[in-house]
Design goal:
Rossmann fold, alpha/beta, 406 residues, six-stranded parallel sheet, single chain, 2 domains
Length: 406
């Protein structure tokens, strides 16, 4: 089967972005299928291509994947207008490829929602099979966050969402809430498969053996790590709020390490400096290949999001699955399916949103109950092995392609 795979933010493990598309493309290839990956130039990613762009694109084989990278730079710090322009340009050029290239199935993964446009075109004009993978519900999430308020824009995005779901031969959702959201818009008869993000268990095979301390922290400190985008959706002022609370309690042994980048990072750094929050350390994004060893030296993984109800069941953050694969307990600060799972599995602690006192209490518990913290980490690893083994999830992913192709 020849698969045309669209992911605007594609990255190999050499980048600091999520690698789901890289891993799933490799599994498709292992099952005898060919994959052509169409992507842009994501600031936190690394496509594996090194040669110069020629007429706005470059291409080459990367670990068996035929990668076509369009010269469309994108960074988390870009303005909404600039990001929207980049999304539109990617959709336009991607659609031209979908209308001209030889393939059997077109697969598109969001975000952005505009990634579905080449799939819609392929289905409409070439009668090709189209699988649409939904990572976030658009426009529900940006509307709930107040990022997009223009009624015309919201109406157009809502139409695009409906057309994408209805055009797709089948859909893949990354969380239970996303699956429900697709069925609500497309109708209960729409075939939707749940394939959440996965844990790379082989990479973290020795993760339960803690390897030293985090860079820049003292021996014996409780090293608490957040990794990922520093944007409005992440609500990272909650981390600085708890840093203030911990300073009031004179808990100098608890360190908060924030790894990543985004539009809010400069403001967060300024606030930390203005309030002398020396218990917070900011780090630049690092490659996934380096992240594995860094997580082995962490004690707690921080799952932080803004208190937006649409997030509770409608997201599937990569970082959570890396934390549990590394065998470290998770502190989650918003309700939803991940908080429920963490609590049920005893794999960490879930605290109410916007409650810095409860957040600080939980961190003190981790610091003062070392054996229980280690046990929680072991249960987190068991959760990853039992429900989120990337290899097992990839089987369901590949099976959906083979079903659609029949």
């Amino acid at each position: 089967m020849r698969i045309l795979y669209y992911h605007q933010h594609f990255s190999t493990p050499s980048g600091s972005a999520g690698t789901r598309s890289y891993e799933m493309a490799r599994r498709l290839i292992q099952h005898g299928h060919s994959v052509t990956m169409i992507c842009g130039s994501y600031g936190m990613g690394n496509t594996g291509l090194q040669e110069s762009f020629v007429r706005g694109r470059r291409s080459g084989m990367v670990d068996g994947i035929n990668v076509i990278e369009l010269e469309l730079p994108y960074a988390n710090r870009d303005s909404l207008v600039k990001r929207s322009r980049t999304f539109a340009r990617f959709a336009f050029h991607s659609t031209l490829i979908a209308l001209r290239s030889p393939y059997d199935v077109v697969f598109a993964t969001s975000t952005p929602l505009t990634a579905a446009i080449p799939g819609i075109a392929a289905r409409t004009f070439r009668r090709k099979r189209f699988i649409f993978e939904v990572r976030d519900l658009w426009p529900e999430l940006p509307k709930a966050m107040g990022v997009i308020t223009n009624p015309v824009a919201l109406t157009l995005l809502s139409w695009l969402e409906w057309i994408a779901y209805r055009s797709a031969t089948s859909c893949i959702g990354l969380s239970p809430g996303i699956v429900d959201g697709i069925r609500k818009r497309a109708g209960p008869a729409k075939r939707v498969t749940l394939v959440p993000n996965g844990s790379d268990l082989d990479v973290f095979a020795t993760a339960l053996d803690k390897s030293g301390d985090m860079p820049g922290t003292a021996p014996g400190d409780l090293d608490c790590v957040f990794m990922g985008a520093h944007g409005l959706a992440n609500g990272l002022d909650a981390v600085l709020d708890v840093a203030v609370e911990l300073k009031k309690r004179a808990r100098t042994d608890i360190r908060l390490v924030m790894i990543g980048d985004g539009r809010c990072k400069p403001a967060l750094q300024k606030r930390a400096a203005d309030e002398t929050l020396d218990n917070v350390k900011f780090m630049a994004p690092i490659a996934k290949t380096e992240l594995y060893s860094l997580l082995r030296s962490a004690d707690v993984g921080l799952m932080i999001l803004a208190n937006v109800p649409a997030f509770y069941y409608g997201t599937s953050p990569n970082k959570f699955f890396d934390y549990i694969a590394a065998g470290i307990p998770v502190l989650n600060n918003y309700p939803g399916w991940l908080a429920d799972m963490i609590t049920d599995a005893g794999a960490g602690i879930a605290v109410p949103p916007e409650d810095s006192v409860a957040f600080a209490d939980a961190l003190e518990y981790f610091a003062d109950h070392v054996e229980e913290r280690i046990s929680m980490g072991a249960r987190a690893r068991e959760l990853a092995q039992g429900k989120f083994d990337r290899e097992k999830l990839a089987q369901a992913f590949v099976a959906e392609f083979e079903r659609v192709a029949c």
